[in-house]
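Structural prep section.
Before we set up the soaks we want a predicted structure of the protein with S-adenosylmethionine in place, mainly to decide which crystallisation condition to try first. Input record follows.
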Amino acid sequence: MGVVDFYDRHPINEEQILAALRRQGRLPGRVTPEDLFDLDQDHYGGLPAVETLAKRAAIGRGSRVLDVGAGLGGPARFLAWRFGCVATGIDLNAGRIAGAHRLTRLCGLERVVRFVRGDATALPFRQGVFDACVSQEAWLHIEDKAAVVAECRRVLRPGGRLAFTDWIAHPRLADGERARLREWMAATTVQTLHGYRALLAESGFTEIEAEDRSANWARVLRQRLQMFRSLREDTVARFGQARYDEYDQLYVFFVGLVERGKLGGGAFDATA
Ligand SMILES: C[S@@+](CC[C@H](N)C(=O)[O-])C[C@H]1O[C@@H](n2cnc3c(N)ncnc32)[C@H](O)[C@@H]1O
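Run finished without errors. Recording the tokens verbatim:
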């Protein structure tokens, strides 16, 4: 399955978020950024994970921040709301970008958060225009990770900070398992912790930190599986029972790999 298709049929989507807001009685009416935060974060660890990333990326008031693989824009909105930065989100998926625009307008953050459709391997921005680049659980979908890292370095000002989290492969991850992740979750290639460290160094980043977060991810992912199961009714209504079953099966497989120590997560930061 291609990555655009994967997110076009993802259980977390704009319609599902709006339906949840209606159920909570917040729509119709005035929606605040905080109303969205329980619903719009498509990564592992929720808002505390975005807070940690922001600290690693030295994001503060007025920082110009790029979120690479921004999805529906949850982290970008949170960063602008929490830290007073100006955020740009880029994503390959047109539906994600359209949804990100609408949700941002809905909660009144459109003056400080904007979105652009584009490819992380060829960022449509001039050199040195950002103070920080962040990304969460997006680069697993991108084959040419060296290009993404180089592009982040190019668009960061000298001294700017990159902070991201992503899947990492452990030695026992078998070729057949990698193939299933590619086929089912559009996880094109999975880098190792040391592989990422080397890519960052080759691109000219300094002060590189690479942390293995796999033990924490196992717990977070078990909770996430339950969260996807709690969305069953919405997912079946929108994509059908077969897609719900397929997604559940692939997620159980994915969480199993993390629990068995074959796959995990890394947190990285570096200076341009
Ligand atoms: C797991 S979602 C994460 C979304 C967001 N970071 C969040 O935490 O809510 C991964 C996102 O990466 C995007 N993506 C995948 N490949 C991409 C690429 N080459 N360029 C830009 N975005 C990409 C997908 O479309 C998807 O929206």
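Observations: The chain has one domain: 3-271.
Flagged for discussion at group meeting.
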